[in-house]
Design a protein that fits this description.
The chain is built from 11 helices and 19 strands. With 375 residues, the chain is an alpha/beta fold. α1 packs across α2. The N terminus and C terminus are likely disordered.
């Protein structure tokens, strides 16, 4: 048997070698990165003690959808090596940074913008649910509400009041983002004396406001900072793209033609700013009648997938139209937290996993000459 040695003494029990274990583990492929987990460097702290084998499998994101399957295969393949009596596998994750964010966000590994070409497509609801979904996988997540004119994230997460402020050695003051559903959150809505009053700012003030919310918030160590952008491609988009090395952007669209046309314009605007497109998702995609169980395409269906294919960018999935999502949002509890087993919550979870996968793919592309294809 490859990689095994016999004892020189009286025992005929084979000796398990590192080569044998790694050869067994190299049979396991990461479906997103398209390489085996040994070549990807996922295997850490391999220890062989007689017939006992222990090691870590360090994934690139805790949101890996096949984490459980990889653990099962690891135990099965290593356990099949002659001489192995016990296999101890510890699944862990280390999210890799897409690039240094400099002094403005020193502890943040990845900044992901959530954008749309027009309002009313449910972008903020999507942002809140994706942030909470990522946090539920064990990732360290922050959410910045950059929709200066309509800061809705606090309401969607059931938050109110002003954030704590702490002095810095430099003499400046930093906001401490409050936490809801495992997510650190910052929004202009926290700072307004009367949240019901409109924000009437000229364009340059919007960019300055977003910069302050970014730089004067103590985000700490984060794997992902999601930024809920205002609709369109104005000052907020330019400020974010120019000040922060974005890991990428997620485009939210409805399926009907007018929404898709505007979403495509937003997508092309980010491409012109050299921002990676992590994918497109279709919100309010279908509606299933509670009484008859029939699926209805109220706003058409499938347009976002077709647009993504034509533009050669990833399609992240569909989110159905659901009264549950609306009621959960109004109650200040994202659906993924309120009803995690519902079909709609599972749609958010799959899309969150897809976003994390695209970040991992892009990160590995920066570190290897072997071509990787986004999926």
């Amino acid at each position: 048997m490859f990689g095994l040695r016999k004892n020189n003494g009286s025992s005929n029990k084979p000796i398990v070698t590192e080569e044998a274990v790694l050869a067994a583990l190299s049979r396991i492929q990461d479906p997103d990165l398209r390489r085996d987990i040994v070549a990807l460097g996922f295997i850490k702290d391999l220890v062989i003690d007689g017939g006992k084998v222990s090691f870590k499998v360090e994934l690139t994101t805790p949101a890996c959808p096949v984490k459980g399957e990889m653990e099962r295969q690891s135990r099965e393949f290593v356990g099949a090596i002659p001489g192995v009596e016990h296999v101890d596998v510890h699944m862990t994750a280390q999210v890799r940074s897409m690039g240094a964010t400099g002094g403005i966000l020193p502890g943040v590994r990845n900044v992901i913008a959530i954008a749309s070409g027009k309002g009313g497509v449910g972008k903020s609801t999507v942002s809140a649910n994706l942030a909470v979904a990522l946090a539920m996988t064990g990732a360290r997540v922050g959410l910045l509400d950059a929709d200066i004119y309509g800061p809705s994230i606090p309401g969607l997460l059931g938050m109110s009041g002003k954030p704590a402020v702490k002095p810095m050695p430099s003499g400046d003051q930093m906001f401490e983002p409050p936490v809801a559903h495992g997510v650190k959150v910052m929004s202009l809505g926290f700072l307004l004396d009367d949240p019901s009053q409109p924000v009437i700012w000229r364009g340059p003030m919007v960019g300055s406001g977003i910069s302050q919310l970014l730089s004067q918030s103590d985000w700490g160590e984060l794997d992902y900072l999601l930024v809920d952008l205002p609709p369109g491609t104005g000052d907020a988009t330019l400020t974010l793209a120019q000040r922060i090395p974005l890991s990428g952007v997620v485009i939210v669209s409805q399926p009907q033609r007018v929404s898709l046309d505007i979403a495509i314009k937003a997508l092309k605007a980010f491409q012109s700013l050299k921002v990676r497109i992590l994918g497109v998702l279709e919100n309010m995609s279908t509606f299933v009648c509670d009484d008859c169980g029939k699926e209805h395409h109220i706003f058409s269906h499938g347009g976002a997938r077709l647009a993504a294919e034509q533009l050669e960018v990833p399609f992240l999935g569909n989110i159905p139209l659901s009264l549950d999502i609306c009621e959960a949002s109004d109650a200040g509890t994202p659906l993924v937290s309120l009803k995690p087993d519902s079909a709609q919550a599972q749609s958010f979870m799959r899309i969150a996993e897809g976003v994390a996968a695209q970040v991992s793919i892009a990160s590995l592309r920066q570190r290897t000459t072997i071509p990787l294809r986004a999926v």
